[in-house]
């Protein structure tokens, strides 16, 4: 089951309390305070795992907690820190708060992000000894661990995204360019979740391609399946836009119809993200195996009149596939990687003691 959106709740452990204790040993008449500090509560981290492909595990178990730190003890013994919790998420997971603020973008293998801090350990009475108060009975409670609700969204990491109407031939093209085996059928919305494939050119040249469910009018508003998966091509560096011949038997390459199909998908991309719509794009007239040479020329001329140099391809016969793969590689090799929208997350140092906790006498 492919899951790319989950809401999880986190409760990091509280810090242990500081200890009130005094040195009591034979032959040591002037023993002083020796109450130790409390241990830190357990942190909760998210870890990007390249072997995971879905957020299903987090949908099944959305609540996570860690233990509190051990309380301080006498003889200046500091309580033990609680064990930290590491939650694995797929590579390409973005983390947001409930109000939509983007907090982290985990796109590097084994990247670790501190999602919830454990509470700091409280101070023992050893810290409060002064010249005027040599036997303090003060300490600090441990700090409270952070409680958070986070939204996790999986956005697959690919170089190229395939877009187009349902039944435009995207899955067939993915199978032709790569060794991927997506489900291929003659009815709309055969693809119900993103598929990834790797196109190999030579011995060490590889391009990752993502195929998402077909878009329809109103996709950016929630129509059809495509709106749920448009996020999966946000990281792509370029798009391959497939336009299939029209279904009308009279003229499958009707000029106005082809351009309308192209413009409609472009409008949906612009409405979803103008940045995504502005990415470099290769336009393909697909399924040319059902067209005559004259119809193919007419279709390509229609795009050229629109200022678009399209490529005619057929995943069935293989026509145009080699030309397309070369153009994809030539284009992608000149493009920089997509820069993450948030800085790479780093572990954050904890303060020594929580300032907000009041002093207590006992």
Topology summary:
Elements (H helix, E strand, L loop, with lengths): L4 E7 L32 E6 L6 H5 L2 E3 L19 E6 L2 E5 L4 E5 L5 E5 L22 E2 L6 E8 L5 E5 L5 H8 L17 E7 L3 E7 L14 H4 L8 E6 L11 H18 L1 H4 L3 E5 L7 H13 L5 E2 L8 H12 L26 E2 L2
Parallel strand pairs: 1-3, 2-4, 10-12, 10-13, 13-14, 14-15
Antiparallel strand pairs: 1-9, 2-7, 5-6, 5-9, 8-16, 11-12
Helix pairs in contact: 4-6
Structure description:
- The chain is α/β, with parallel strands linked by helices.
- It has two domains: 1-154, GTP1/OBG domain (Spo0b-associated Gtp-binding Protein, Chain: A); 160-332, P-loop containing nucleotide triphosphate hydrolases (Rossmann fold).
- It is built from seven helices and 16 strands.
- The longest helix is centred in the C-terminal third of the chain and has 18 residues, at 255-272.
CATH superfamily of the largest domain: P-loop containing nucleotide triphosphate hydrolases
**Percent of residues in beta strands:** 15-25%
| Strand and helix order | EEHEEEEEEEEHEEHEHHEHEHE
Instruction: Return the CATH architecture of the largest domain.
Output: 3-Layer(aba) Sandwich
> How many domains is the backbone divided into?
2
CATH topology of the largest domain: Rossmann fold
Helical amount: 10-25%
Choose one word for the global shape. rod-shaped
Residue windows where pLDDT falls under 50 for at least 5 positions: 343-362
Cα(first) to Cα(last) distance is: 55 Å
The CATH class assignment of the largest domain is Alpha Beta
How is the biggest beta sheet arranged? 6 strands, mixed
Q: Calculate Rg over CA atoms.
A: 30 Å
